[in-house]
Design goal:
This protein is mostly helical. The protein contains 17 helices and 5 strands. The strands form 2 sheets. Strands 3-4-5 form a 3-stranded antiparallel beta sheet. Strands 1-2 form a two-stranded antiparallel ribbon. The structure holds acetyl coenzyme *A.
Length: 428
């Protein structure tokens, strides 16, 4: 093994530089010493969309996109999905290790003590139009929480941070349920903290005073697995937003509200909703080949396929496919499943998708499951945001404690007009 350095020759000047390599990276700021003239700014790297820029060092989530590996704190996602539950995984992410029984009981208690929402939030939810998109409501409610808990501003105090984490993880499902009940014009159900995290969410959404009401355990378990799969995914668009906004030292509610907005987009957490709309638009298995042809001609994308990092089957998609069949056994089968399976079958053997390494991602099947669980389509991104809150908060904590981090401030390559004089309006 040679030296852990990179030798760069600047052909403009003939000068040679030796840059250290650490963890397979060079420091972008080391490039700044490379100058054509003594007074020039120094070399920068140009990386639109951060295609090849590590923004932080992290110990939270490991992904090997080529091999299709995803691990939280070193634990393979397959093992967590099979043996763990969402709240335990949230603890693992935030505190770095699996809890023992005592700590898990404590953690459950902390979260369940924070499931009730402030009446101001109830009023805020009721102020929205009946057809308001739930993500707009979530973004607003999380942002409004910063006004209800002004102590959250004190982000340098670890105890204050921890309390906001309990509040966010505890209250976000209640906001989801209330937003839903408001939309369908039904009274709100108070949280039932004797239930599991996901069973409580289903209960708050569904309960209608039935004497024999019970949350279907298969459905609560399926939602729990989906929550585990969505809990973190390292530096994606919304997490980078959480870190970026949080780097200004704003309170976590404001940062999380920005991360939620980033997640809302159709290329990110909005994709599961987009997949369902696409499946409905295709309408019938016999239309699948024609749809694929149109995608190949660039007339739209096959939603739920492709990923910036996974150039192999998204490991979460494999688990979700299995969960989908379990859910469909407990509910009515979804006719759109047939279209999804056919799309996947054709795409996986089509040269266009093979050459571009486009495989199903986590969103390809999740929408079908959410639909079978009875959630309206607009709620799908919300169901991504609830579990991702744990990931965002963990990444936020790591960013705050990282001595190398500062306020996020990328550079630009300015290509606009050079300096010119203002022309008065009457002379233009
Ligand atoms: N359908 C058809 N073609 C696609 C798709 C797709 N879903 N995704 C990528 N491609 C093609 C592009 O047209 C491009 O082809 P070209 O080289 O001939 O121009 C090539 O594959 C590379 O695509 P990029 O857009 O450069 O890939 P990028 O890494 O920027 O995009 C993304 C990743 C946004 C996820 C993309 O694959 C996509 O739009 N997928 C559909 C939306 C989706 O499912 N998003 C969910 C992502 S997972 C998540 O957020 C949880």
């Amino acid at each position: 093994m040679g030296k852990e350095t990179l030798t760069v020759t600047d052909n403009r000047t003939g000068k040679i530089y030796e840059l250290p390599i650490e963890h397979g990276t060079i420091r972008a700021t080391d490039l700044r010493q490379i100058k054509a003239e003594t007074d020039d700014f120094g070399l920068m790297s140009y990386d639109p969309a951060y295609m090849n820029t590590a923004e932080c060092k992290s110990t939270i989530t490991y992904i090997d996109g080529d091999k299709g590996i995803l691990e939280y704190r070193g634990y393979p996602i397959e093992q967590l999905a099979e043996h763990s539950n969402y709240l335990e995984v949230a603890y693992l992410l935030i505190y770095g290790d699996l809890p023992n029984q005592e700590r898990l009981a404590w953690w459950r208690n902390r979260i369940s003590r924070h499931t009730f929402i402030h009446n101001n939030l109830v009023e805020l939810i009721q102020a929205f139009r009946y057809d308001a998109h739930p993500m707009g409501i979530l973004i607003s409610c999380v942002s409004a929480m910063s006004t209800l808990f002004p102590d959250a501003k004190n982000v340098d105090d670890p105890a204050v941070r921890e309390k906001q984490i309990w509040r966010i993880i505890g209250q976000v499902p209640t906001i989801a349920a209330y937003a839903y009940r408001n939309r369908i014009g039904r009274p709100f159900n108070q949280p039932d903290n004797s239930l599991s995290y996901t069973a409580n969410l289903l209960y708050m959404m569904d309960y209608m005073n039935q004497r024999d009401y019970e949350v279907n355990p298969v459905l609560a378990k399926a939602l729990d697995v989906l929550f585990i799969l969505h809990a973190d995914h390292e530096q994606n668009c919304s997490t980078a937003t959480m870190r970026g906004v949080g780097s200004s030292r704003v309170d976590p509610y404001s940062a999380l509200s920005a991360a939620t907005a980033a997640l809302y987009g159709p290329l990110h957490g909005g994709a599961n909703e987009a997949v369902l709309r696409m499946l409905q638009q295709i309408g019938n298995v016999k239309n699948v080949p024609d749809f694929i042809d149109r995608v190949k001609k660039g007339e739209g994308r096959l939603m739920g396929f492709g990923h910036r990092v996974y150039k192999n089957y998204d490991p979460r998609a494999k688990i979700i496919r299995k969960v989908a069949y379990e859910v469909f056994e407990a509910t009515d089968s979804n006719p759109l499943l047939e279209i999804a399976v056919e799309l996947e079958r054709i795409a996986l053997q089509d040269e266009y998708f093979i050459a571009r390494k486009l495989y199903p991602n986590v969103d390809f099947y999740s929408g079908l499951i959410y639909q079978a669980l009875g959630f309206p389509m607009e709620y799908f991104p919300f169901l991504f945001a609830i579990p991702r809150a744990a990931g965002w908060l963990t990444q936020w904590l790591e960013m705050l404690d990282d001595p190398e981090q500062k306020i996020m401030r990328p550079r630009q390559v300015y290509l606009g007009a050079s300096q010119r004089d203002y022309v008065p309006l009457e002379q233009r």
